[in-house]
Amino acid sequence: MAAPVAKSVSPDPALVALHRFGLGAKPGDDFGKIAADPRGYLKAELKQQDIALISPDDPRNAGLLDSTAAIQASMTAAAERRAARDQKAEPAMRPTAMDDPGGLTETKDKPAVPRVEADIYRDEAQARFDKAFAATPGFVERLVGFWSNHFCVSVAKAAVVRASAGAFEREAIRPFVFGRFADMLLAVEHHPSMLFFLDNQQSIGPDSRVGKRRGRGLNENLAREILELHTLGVGSGYSQADVTSFAGMLTGWTMAGRKGRLGEPGTFVFNANAHQPGNAVLLGKTYPGGGMGQAEAALNDIARHPATARHIATKLARHFIADDPPPAAVERLARVFAKTDGDLRALAVTLIDMPEAWSTPLAKLRSPLDYVVALRRAIGSTAGNEPQRSLRWLKALGEPLWQPPGPNGFSDQTDAWTSAEGLKTRLDIAWQAAKQADDIGNPNEMLASLIGASVSAETRQAISRAESRQQGLALLLMAPEFQRR
Amino acid sequence: MSLLCETPSLSRRAVLMTGGALFAWAHLPRLARAADNRDPRLIVIVLRGALDGLSTVGPVGDPDYAGLHGDIALSLSGANPALPLDGFFAVNPAMPVFARLFKAGQAAVVHAAATGYRDRSHFDGQDVLESGLPGPGNATTGWLNRALASLPAGDRIVKAGGLAVGPSTPLVIRGAAPVLGWAPQALPTPGDALAERVLDLYNHRDPVLAAALQRGLDADRMAMGDALDGKTMKPKGGLDNAAGMRQSAQGAARLMAADDGPRIAALAFDGWDTHVNEGGATGRLANLLGGLDGAFEEFEKGLGARWRDTAVVTITEFGRTARINGTVGTDHGTGTVVLLAGGAINGGRVVADWPGLKPAQLYEQRDLAPTSDVRAVLKGLLADQFGLSAAVLGDKVFPDSAAVKPMRDLVV
Question: How far is A46 from chain B (nearest CA, A)?
Fold first, then answer.
């Protein structure tokens, strides 16, 4: 896809910092100051302590549940729903049910998404949005979004995932955004949300005690996606035998059930009785049998594999620079990955220091999530019913929060988002946002404070000629300079 | 698209009662009319984008009009003749309701009117129009809200609060006095005006986005066109098309007809910035005027017996050039019309100190010269409907406007 800006001049460095790396300008951002030292501006955010975490000290986050509590709440609610359904199915046997229809209201007016999980999801979404709105300039949140999409789970899978997707991101992604890749990988693959999403709790070693007793066997889903999506990348040389073998190593990695037979409900447990015994081979290396350590050792190895370094380097460069990233940029990132043992902070700094990041035209389209966040940062607090409004927008734009169409996450290619319906929906949303914004400043001034001096003459003119503030603001939110990054 | 619809419920907005104290006892006891069971209402419709007054109420008797306004000039002859109001002015044929009300003495026109603002920026012009301040600035309250806040605290008009129609509160009614918000159920989908402007920008700057958006809009139109049974076709709730204008007036009338309903309301209709292919007796502007006419009709119907004491006034930030431009439209100008309708209006009149349309008579040789101040009209309505004194009007409601005298006798 041709870049929209044909000129060979480098983009405004302030815009690179705010759009390519960040989540967009907020009214009051000083373009001149940012442009004077854009790299320093980005690095300053990285240096803030615990910047990637959603702080539990913030009273607004006080209600957030850890994944164990969230999953337990979901399990309890599911059990109650089942009981209510059973009760309704046999009203004749339970005369009290006739007298007390109130107990049945949940099944009678059954919401599309059960209430407990929906409430947890909404609170998590609110916390994530709050974090994104406060971030300056938001490079850290963009990294969180990148890794969260790389290691995605989908709330559409099951109520348990809906309840725990937010906690998963806070527990397995955020603490490691500036740590080592191997540590993030291990945290992710141990997490109940991921184990549930990729069916590993159903995977049983055929020769394990449970496997022999019940005649059940492997589910390769998690093993395959770890190799194909999380680490090595498709076509990097692993075979079906590697997948099968790795799946065997991962058997027994599961989540304790509601009755707590294996451990505290909702937590990760290693169920030795379901684990495939014996040595296993992955990529030519033999991992001796002996429990959970076997797959952990394999994960630690593939986290450091050159194919993983190249896979991650390509995805990072594609996300932050261009759909077809400059080979030199990928090469450099892969080298840093290998040299630093997958130090993700070093990778982030490498991205900032990369000349290609500052010379490549801003030709990618903002993803729906980045667009909605940038739009809300631009217009400030409005009367909308949040977070529901943003969640509805994201759904309409095709990027519902924590609900990708598959384990490969949402697309990071511009073509995927420049769809007819997508653009039309962006227009609808820009208009709604502009209509609902109660206090719109002068759109010409907003343009200056949100896009800066590099804005095209055409965009400037279109906005200055708008027939109302609302129309001017909607034009600003639709302008190529606001859509592209 | 239903995903994008919200249902804003009737809600109190900006309930900041304390501010009202500032205006305590600004009201003069000119409520002799309260004794005769009069229950006055005032509806302000802001037409954003600058209404072409010369295509709304055409001076068909002015010998220079047809030459200046060219193909889009209104005329008493032809396929779509304008509806004569008197021997000199005729209203756009898209407005039969307004013409009927005019004949019945329930509608009037103030022509060649403008606020005190003389530059041609929409944003600043709307600021001045709605804030009631002498010039543009960072206005946060509107003259209609300050008028409400200037009434005595116990007054039923104050107790019922103001009504803001639409998804956002128009500046004209923002302020300390409590305001109720209501919007038609469907949130607005953007009208063609915005889509065209975005497409035009994309065509110049970003062909990829232009192609995608064009396809999206085409698909949308086809979906609308196919829905002949009307079931899948959602009413466009936007306030920049005829259906949306009518719909919002219908809802507002229902709320205002109630005994304890709001007496004062503000609506903002968009889309009047007719630079290109404006049309005359038919076309884009006529479609919008038809929507405005529909809004008058809905207010008349919906207010029932209350219509008798109601005044509706339409205002716009400025007018448009007297001469049509190179794209059969008009550019930003100065003088324009204020339309008045309602049982309370002393109607059947076009109030105008007509400046003429000869080159030397035009403002800066391009615009209809303003001979009436919009503020004088609004002050007259506020004085006669609610008994606000000239002093309060010249100080609190329209600051620094003592020299602009209220235009009296607009109300029966």
Answer: 33
Chosen from B10, B197, B203 to mutate, greatest number of chain A CBs within 10 A: B197
CB B211 within 8 A of CB A418: no
Would you state the pLDDT for residue A437?
79
pLDDT digits 0-9 by tens, B91-147: 999 999 999 999 999 999 999 999 999 988 888 899 999 999 999 877 889 999 999
Burial of A455 (0-12, 13-18, 19+ CB in 10 A): buried
Q: Which residue of B has its CA nearest to A1?
A: B208
Closest CA to B322 of B66, B60, B46, B47: B66
Sketch the domain layout of chain A as residue ranges: 13-36+365-483, 59-193, 198-303, 306-359
Neighbours of B207 (CB within 10 A): 12
Q: What is the pLDDT of residue B187?
A: 53
Kindly identify which residue of chain A lies nearest to residue B168, measuring between CA atoms: A436
Distance from CA of B345 to the nearest CA of A (A): 29
Instruction: Judge whether A413 is closer than 8 Å to chain B, CB to CB.
Output: no
DSSP for B93-124 reads TT-HHHHHHHHTT-EEEEEEEE-S--S--HHH
Q: What is the pTM for the complete model shown?
A: 0.75
- Chain B nearest-CA residue for A442: B123
Inter-chain CB proximity B198 and A478 less than 8 Å: yes
pLDDT at B15 over 50: no
Contact flag A383-B168 (C-beta cutoff 8 Å): yes
Residue B222 is predicted with a pLDDT of 64
**How large is the ipTM?**
0.87
Looking at chain A, which residue has its C-alpha nearest residue B202? A480
Q: Which CATH number, 3.40.720, 3.30.70, 3.30.420, 3.40.50, labels domain B2-187+238-397?
A: 3.40.720
Q: Which of B201, B207, B213 sits opposite A423 (nearest CB)?
A: B213
**C-alpha to C-alpha distance for A387 and B246, rounded to whole angstroms:** 32
Distance from CA of B103 to the nearest CA of A (A): 33
Q: Summarize pLDDT for A29-79 with one digit per residue, the tens.
A: 999 999 999 999 999 999 999 999 998 778 889 899 999 999 999 999 999
Separation of first and last alpha carbons in chain B: 47
